[in-house]
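Exam review. A common question shows you a sequence with its structure tokens and asks you to describe the fold in words. Practice with the pair below. Do the first one on your own.
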Amino acid sequence: MSNENNQESIQRMKELTELLNKASKAYYAEDKEIMSNFEYDKLYDELQSLEEKTGVILSNSPTVSVGYEAVEELPKVRHETPMLSLGKTKSREELQEWLGEKEGILSWKLDGLTVVLTYNDGKLAKAVTRGNGEVGEVITNNARTFKNIPMNISHRGELVLRGEAVISYSDFERINSQIPDADAKYKNPRNLCSGSVRQLNNEITAKRDVRFYAFSLVSGADENTYKTVEEQFEFLKELGFDVVEHKSVDKSNILAAIEYFEEKIKTYDIPSDGLVLTYNDIAYGRSLGRTAKFPRHSIAFKWADEIAETTLKEVEWSASRTGLINPVAVFEPVELEGTTVSRASVHNVSIVKSLKLGIGDRITVYKANMIIPQIAENLTKSGRLSIPEVCPVCGGKTEIRVGNDVESLYCTNDKCPAKEIKSFTLFVSRDAMNIDGLSEMTLEKFVDMGFIKEFADVYRLSKYKDVIVNMEGFGEKSYENLIAGIDASRNTVLHRVIYGIGIAGIGSANAKVLCRYFDYELEKIKNATVSELSEIDGVGEVLAGAVYEYFHNAENIERLDKLLAELNLEKQENTESQNLAGLTFVITGSLNNYQSRNELKDIIETRGGKVAGSVSSRTTALINNDNTSTSSKNKKAKELSVDIITEDEFIKKYLV
């Protein structure tokens, strides 16, 4: 190789190393993905090929480093035995050749978070994440909430094993279905699992239905007793552990075993991104040693993605309530993994540009992990696709914004209907009109179709019955349930309406205060002066101005009148206790009993209390479920001798 070519190769290696390490950091430390597995593997293979060709390996190359450093929030500990990555192949024949004449164990390569468990004298003593392979994070308290981990085992002495913490697809869908905000939903089970396992508060972990599947016994059993991986699996099952599904294989049946897993993954409820083949003879596997990064006793098999070539028909630009406009590729339908596929998310402008997309281009598509449609390559690379200069929903001006080195398209119109989704989401929420069946995703569909333009339109959806029952995700029964929920919400009380119409700064608690002060008479609230409103405890001049401005806007009054014509307001009496009057609280950290800090704040303010943003000598108590935290609020509370109490302690002392 010429010196010039060698320099070009090394420069490309530097670019690839930086890009892959950035993707690795996002994946392992930040629970997000900035490129697909397909793209990562392709770039990784390119880097590895260049390293072989040049004989040069950069010090920070991902081919010799493992994972990424653990985040700072959890205590760290060094693994007694380093946790290495596995070499990989997508070739079935190569897997068969690797096994040779030996016997092996073929098992799922589960897609979650690897965890090391240590038991001492039959009790779970420590649980540590993989981290960077050398150092992991201690998550012992969280592991104790995993659904299927035995707290006590019959084995005495020390026992160390490894396995994968996972969240099933069905639990993932269930958890996401409980989140009304489409932008707040989790992207995939692995991200949800990683965030759940690494929580500072294990009560949150307990609600996520995390499960653990053992895949390796590290130490604790007599080597003369269990000489094969199969025997170790049986030993772990006898102790009460769920072990990863596996099959005994040799060169005669390994291809059939791969086909078994390939068929099962189509309906398998546990996320998997491939298989692992391990020599069954433990002593033989250990005798092979390791490379700088990989052990030689095992190899990973990643599914060779079924790729289909098709033609890009159009790119739809889908606006969200945040103003973000996401590109979605629409192409000629193709068969992939047994289903017909015609759409794939392109995620952002940066990916559109990197793929050099243009309408009519020939592209290849695949299903990531045999599930999620993605564009693999653009064979034409015309680059003719124009980035919209106007929003597809409102026609307002768009702009490209850069965040974390990623270009994304946004609508700049504050009045864009897509952005107004947020106001409709608030309107139907539990503390407002409390309408079941109108998730943010459903609201977005109805707004896009022109069914909902103002609050009163929610109560007129029945005139679109013929269209709604034929929409994806709907049907006659779903429609009937939706209308029943809407009709049930017609009988309501004033403070729910005041909160639901979204007056700036007025939360559920403030709405109740307003209604109590004016004897639940809407006309009194509408005619109140700024001075009168300012006299209300907990309202103040700023909120008073917002209330006055809202009720002196002709368009707002017109919309409110239309809404009230659809409702039956019940007269309400003041029954709320004011037992927190004169008390001030600060809230920090994650919550278990409330969906958000605002919900807890509203409850405190409804009972006459106040919520401040920082701890001072006037603070009654700091509400924090982690009293061992080293956060600035905890430190300040301890300095000032302010009580630090958990949610449960707050409820028991102040609300019961």
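Now try the second one, then compare your answer with the model answer below.
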Amino acid sequence: MGSKQQRLLAVGMPFFVVIALAVMPIQAGAGTSRPGGPSDTTYAASYAKAKVSNIAVTSQRVSCYRPEVPFFTKGTTDGYTGMTPCPSATTGEDTGAAGPYPNQVGSANGYPAAGPMLVNDHSESDLRVDPNHPNHVIASSKWFVSAEGYNHVLGFYESFDGGKTWPVQGHVPGYEGFTDNTDPIGAFDGYGNYYSLVLPYQFAYAGGAHGTGGKLYQKSNLPNPAMPPEAVSVAVRPVGANTAGGWITTHKNSSGVIGPDFVAIDNNQGQEPDKQWIAIDNNPNSPNYNTIYAMFVNFSFDGLMSKAYVSTAKALRGGKHTDWTPLQRLPSLSGSASDTYLLPHVDPSGTVWTSITNFPSRQSRSTYSLAVDYSTDGGVTWQGPLPVPGAQNVAIPPEAYPNTTFTDGITDTFTVGTAKVNGRYPIYMSWEDYASGVDNIMLSGSFDGGQSWTAPVRVNDNLTRADEFQPNLAAAANGTVSVNFYDRRLACPSAGTAEADGAGIALDTVNPHYSGALPPYGASNYCINTSLQFYSAALTPLGNNIRLSAHTWDPQLNAPWRYGSGLFTGKDTFIGDYFGNDFAGSTSLTTSVSTYDDGTNPQHYQQQVIAIVASP
């Protein structure tokens, strides 16, 4: 999530009373019961039973870059280490040690940082499988040099053997002249080029170039006047690239001008782009082959209103593309309210679909409604919105869940099927519902082009009350559907166990959201795993939830301070708003956060772990 929207939500979100949840059975009710769920012990053992493998990826390499704005305040609890100089990068990327990056040359006095800094945390992620070469996988994540300052660019990690090894890693270059680059998301075109859609933005810290206070967004405080305050932009990794620096970050437009590959820029700091997402039609048989769909939401500080936009281009060989088209507004459920969470996907017929989430009031964030927009002509015209009947006026979870301080972001996920059901390509929607007082994952599908939808079913099969959140949908070529999500059903490890030592529970000593004893040994609805549920194309469940995490982890450790206040107040930390999920053939690949130390993560940083499991 972009920091600008966080500031809006900080003003507009209602206050929530936080209480600890007792462990008790989930009460049956409409859309909340799933009879026959396994015990927590059975769920915990499903990792081994399903033969899941975990690869701790981002702890394998040392990555560094020279940040535009340093932030040296150090947290005093929960394992924080502060911003530290680069020890010695092992990624082969340009760390900025030889001097500022090209887009940092116009920086104001005191910027950028004096030298490269170590990347420590890696939260929020995306994962995409190359349609031409299923063993080729690129994942991306936020790449933090300062968790305390919420200071990051985007990084990537690349596999050429189906996720078993990840030899190429580094930060995504081209936009280091902004304070932050955020919201990792990418897509492959039909030629095998990978497009990363980036949201770079600027802010300064109160107190000057090395300040320790809150964030300042005024144009008079921009660290780099040569760059716009914020933009939606692209970096392309061309087919065949095999080094960390192998990216194209500029675009030559139809007038012959070469510059940053901006889809849109914000120069007024009052209409802020955020929540960008990308899809590319990579089906050679589609009438819209190689059309790129770049979407984002424009937030207004005046009234907390947001509107959804799309721009398109045509992918060309060599990682190039045509100019981006003028912005076009997408159809909305309510023209006077707020739209967000655009998650476009293209079905095999060439129709591009996107979810669109609508908040019915400019000020209220208590409920939301889901719908889909679509285009059959390559984004020239758009139809919709088509409401999802079972996902209207859904109870939104609190900004920060009970017992912990991390915040939740994107409430829903969307994908299209690649195998027809009753002669049509399905579309699927999954979302969070907090109506029962804990967060549950719901799922619905449409098999007639969004005209009607199946009754919502609950995805998570836990028998005890716990929050399940951040669903992520993917569909395999054979029609199998997976819903992945973060899962809090398993208690934190008990004191005196090897699992508690590996999870670093002893470091978790300050948490004003938790009424129990600290460290939180054995705490319920607190620590996290990643889970998966498989379905057939017709949404018949295939078995029960599968635990994708080898180890339960503590979300309080090294969690970025979401608002970068420089003074930890015990609220609004961050593990991400979403994580990556895709299929390579019939193999499911997931990239998600863990702070567990498997021997490679002694500082308990947020690392990305790849989970691999065969679909049934």
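Model answer, second protein: Residues 1-60+388-568 form one domain. The radius of gyration is 22 Å. Full marks require stating both points clearly.
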